[in-house]
Each structure stands twice: as C-alpha cells, then as structure tokens.
Design a protein that fits this description.
The complex is a heterodimer of chains A (about 425) and B (about 290). Chain A contains 20 helices and 14 strands. Chain A is of the alpha/beta class. The relative contact order of chain B is 0.13. With about 290 residues, chain B is mostly helical. The chains are: A alpha/beta (about 425), B mainly alpha (about 290).
Amino acid sequence: MTISRRAVLRTAAGAAGLGVVGGAAACSRPVVADQSAARSSRGPLTVWTSSNEQERAWGEAVAELWNAERPEEQVTLQEVPAGASTEEAVTAAIVAGTTPDLLFAISPAATTDWVRAGGLVDLSAFDGADAFIEGRVGAEVARGYAHEDGRYYQLPWKANPVMIMYNRELFAQAGLDPDDPGMASYDSFLDGAQAIVDSGAARSAIWPAPTAEFFQSWFDYYPVMLASTGGTLLVEDDRATFATDEGIAAGEFWEEIYARGLAPTETSTDNAMAAGTTAMQMAGPWAIASYDGTIDYGIMPVPTADGLSPEEITTFADAKNASMFTSSRHQLSAWEFLQFATAPEQDRILLDLTGQMPMRQDLLALHPEFFRENPAYRAFAEQSARVADVPNVPGSIEIWQRFRDGYVASAVLGKRPVREEFPAVADAIDTLLGA
Amino acid sequence: MLTRILGKQPFGLALAVPYVVFLAVVMAYPLAYAVWISFFDYVFAAPGMDIDADFVGLANYQAALTDPRVLQSFGNIAIFLAINVPLTVVLSMILASALNAVTRWTAAFRVAFYVPYVTASVSLIGVWMLLFSQEGLVNTILGPLAPDPSWLVNEHLAMPSIALYVTWKQLGFYILLYLAALQAVPAERYESASTDGAGIIQRFWHVTVPGVRSTTLIVLILSIIIGANLFTEPYLLTNGGGPDGASSSPVLMIYQKGIQQGNPDVASAIGVILVIGVGLLSLLSTRLTKES
C-alpha cells in the first residue's frame, strides 16, 4: 500500500494550518473578558496555597471558617501545581489562563512581570484596599510591595525573616559561649567560624547552598548586605547598589568564609545542621519545627561590618504574599476572602500551624500569648519589624541570576576577586535596567 | 478527482491522519511558533492581553550568540557529546555482542543493563550525588587521589561526570537496539569468517560492525539528539549547571531564560540554533555511516 507523498504533505499542511489557527484562537480569548463586571461579582472561589503541609493546613482551616459563613461563595482549596518552583507554575498558568482566583504564595520577585503579562488584578481598585494594606503592614513597608505604577497587586501576607540559627552544643565544643557567641561583626564571626572548624566540632561552620539558582542569594549574601546597609535593596532608582563599599565588604565577608574553607563549595545532600555537619544555618522561623526536639539551637542576627546591635539590623523578609488573578470571575468575593484570610484571627491560625510570621504591624502586641507559649519564635517576630524584600523591578529574576552567577564565580569559587567582579556585574545589571 | 486528492488508498491515508495531526499540533506548530517568536520582542501574557510584539529581526539571535553563558553552554554540550556519543556507540555495541554470545543468565544480564534506563533520573541522581560528593564513596576509595574540588563542583570534571552518568543510564536502551540488530546478522557470515581463520576481534570488526551499520546510524542520531537536549542532569546533579556554568547546557539556558526569566524570545532563538546544530550533526552522522 502506498500513499501519495503529495496527499500526505497536503494533509500535514492542512493539519498544521488548523493547529496555527486553533492555537491562535485559543491564545487570543481572554478568560474573563469583562473585568469590571467580574470586579463586582460574587460566587465560588478557587484558592491555591503552596504544597507545604503546614500552609495547606492553614488554608483548609481558613476555608472551613469562610465556607461556614458564605455558603454561596464556597472556597475550594488546591495546591499550586507541581513544578520546579511556584513562580514557574504560576507563569505557565497565567499564559494558559488556568490561574485560580487567589494565590497565597506569591514571591515579590515575580510580580512585576506578572502584572505586565496582565495576570494580576489591581487590588487598589477595590474600595479601601490601599488603606487596608497600609494599615496591615504600615505605609512604608507596604510601599515596598507596590508596583511601579504605585498600585498594589499583592497583599503582604507572611514573612520568614532570615536569621542565623546555630547548634549550641557545637558552639560549646568550639569554646564559644552558646548564650552570647559574640559573632555580631564580620571579624568576630570569622573568628568564631574558624574556631568551630579548627576545634573539629563540625566539618563546616556554616553551609549555605553554594549553587547558582537565582534565589540562593536571598539566603546568604543579601541578608548580610541588607544588614550592613540599613536595608538598601539590590537595585534602587534603576541602579544596582551592591558595588558600593558596604556591598563589596559583604561579598568579601563571604569570600573569606569560602577561602578559609569555613563553608563547603558543594551542596549538602541532607539537612546539614540536623546531621551535625555544620554548626550554623541561615534560615527563617519555618526551620524551628525541623530542629525542635533534635538540636539544642540558638538564634542570632546576621553579622554586620561593625557589629551593629540586634535592634539596628535589617534582614531579608523572604515574604510570600497573596494576589488575585485576572482569570477570577468573582473578584468581589475574592477581595473579601483576602481580607478575611488576613484578619488577626486567621493570622493567629497561621502562627499556630506554620510558625511563620504574619506581615503586620505590632505582631508581638497582637498575639502576645503565642510568643509567650512559643518563645523560640520571639526573635523572629522582633526581627520581622525590620525587614526588606527584593526590589520591585521588571526582569527581577534575570537580575538576580546575573548577580548570583557573579557571586558564585567570585565569592564562592574564588575565580575572580569580589572587588573586581561586583562592579562588572553591577554594570551589566545597570545595562539590563536601561540605566 | 477524488482519487487525485486522496490518492489510491484513502483508507491508508485515514489511518495516517491522526498521527499527522498529532505531529502537526504537538511538534510542527510549536516549532513554527518558536521560530516566529525568535524574530519578535515577545513576552508571555495572559490570554486576551494585547501586548505588541515588535519584529526585531536577528536581535534575539545576536543577544543569544553574544551572551557568554549561552556560548559556554554550547561549548559544554560539545564536550558532553564528544564523550557521550562515542562511548555510547562503542560500549553498547561491544556489550550487546557480549550479551548475544552469553548463553547462561542472559535475562539477568539484560535486566541489569536495562534497569538504569527505566529508573527515573531524579532518583538515580540522588545516589550519584552521594557517591561523588566530597566525602562520598568514590572519594573515600580514591583517598589521596580524589580530585579537589570534588567531581561535581570541579569545573573540569563536572561535565565529563555528567557525560559518564548519562552514558551509563542510557546504555541499556542502545544495547537493546543492537541486540535486535544482531539477530539479523546471518550466522553463516560468522561461520565463513571462522573458516577463513578470523578470530573474535576480526569477526567483530568485519562481520558484526558492518552487519549493524544501520543500527549504528540510529544510535548515533538518537544519542546526539538526546544528548544535545541535556537538561535534567545539569539541573539536578550540578544544581543548575554549576560550578560557574561549567555544566550548563543550551536547554538549561532555554529553561532559565524562557521560563524563569521571562525572555521567551531569546530562549526561542537558542532553541532554533540548537535545532539547526543537531540537524547538521545528524546529517553528518548519516554521511559518515553511509555504505559506499
């Protein structure tokens, strides 16, 4: 049996044409064409949370409370679809038009590009939204999460202020005082870290991921830079800021750690601090649950050049926020659920179930009993009043990747000095920003 | 007239149409779309968003080809292919011949080679990370001969380590292809060669190698295509192509630029360059293995 080559080609061409037309038609049709009608509509909602077990439990608890009050506006909870990261799963969902009404796991690094893609709803368009957001976290903190047009497309929800958790037993073995390690400055931190390794208490003093994923700088270099500069973001006024004396000093601090072999240059294959192969880890309050009952741990702020006191230190917020998608058909219900889910009562549920810090003013005063019952979280709650996040700029992830590549090449691998590498990377980022 | 349009065997055409449609929708359309994107200033957008995509000519190709990280990734994949493809062809052919000659425990040997191929790379990579870490089993055995920095964080060893891993993992599949091909080599040829005084090596070289030539072409092309599309191993084994991009691959760059960083236009340009490169390499393989 033979098939005419021309017939096959004709069929293929027709099918390809259909594919193009079909694809183009599918791509051009908005999920919700009438956004103003959706803005005043009520109805059932789909809400995504991260796949984190504790956050999922929070979502279920809050949805249950809401559903009991609003039988006509039932919330269905789902996890963010599996993907390498929430950001990638959400980007794919925005393009495909399969986003839910709300997501409680928004990384601020991605929101600028999602707004430009037309994926997020302008929350400022709802009555009283700006006042609600600024009332929750304070006007100054809130402005850090505003889009370049000054409007809010994300509601600050929770933070995981990055601090240094340490193994008190290993510190004692190294001759350091576990109650007051005295490692607040770069020099004293390096001395303490050296003592840990020299004493044989642990294979390494600290073990951040030395790899080149764009977000890894949020958990090694960036908190130290924020602490030493009083909260200067990586990019301000469309220019990179890390090639200043303070920024380079923070890079040289890490360069020294790796050069002395105080931190490994390969990834840990397990939880290094739980396994006892390192004495310190930079982490947020989420880590307490993983060390509770297994390690006698202490918590201290990230070091600064001159050893600032804890109440003067700003660190990385590692915030995850809540946003509404333009695919939402019932945006009024969604906005009301956003307010409900971030009320003080629901924030207390968040504390109880996850140990993560709700982003709101006077957190300690609002939930004193929680911090009385769980004193380990108090340091993080105090630190959460002095946090900064990633800059809200277009192409944020590309900028972080450029920075990370330069950081790994210089500070971690020592291929080029930080003092030479950082200005070159800053120039490249300025070019990306169009400066 | 109808016969002219549908051909002499319209039923056969009907049988072929579903697969042609599948190819058109899943392969041809995305490929054509990617080529189109590579010539425009394109960003991902929600359905219905009216975002202008300006024609930028070859600007995306220029951006890709002047990016040191992209060039490095193409250099890395050349190293990978230089190690992986010859090793794959030689080892799979030799091992298949050996397996073909084995008369006892045949199934056990075949399964042993095939298990890595059918096992998810994600789980195998975890084992390799443990084996090749600074204090892993391999370095423990090597003792003072262990490389410093260790295998996966050593810029000279990271890509060769990945190439060895992928060769080992994929070998079972190619061995199966050769085993099938070996069944078609007439036993008389081996008998004639033996009668003429040929030893094991001469029989392998003058009977087996020419007898499986067409399979060698398939193995060459498949290993080039699969190798050039390397992603999982640098993404997981060396945590995103480290150290300092020494094990990054073009597909990893496509992923980073297109999916992570929101630059699908430059990512598409890298993809088109990769497709052309793989096409040329496949063409070269066809020429090299062509029977005179």
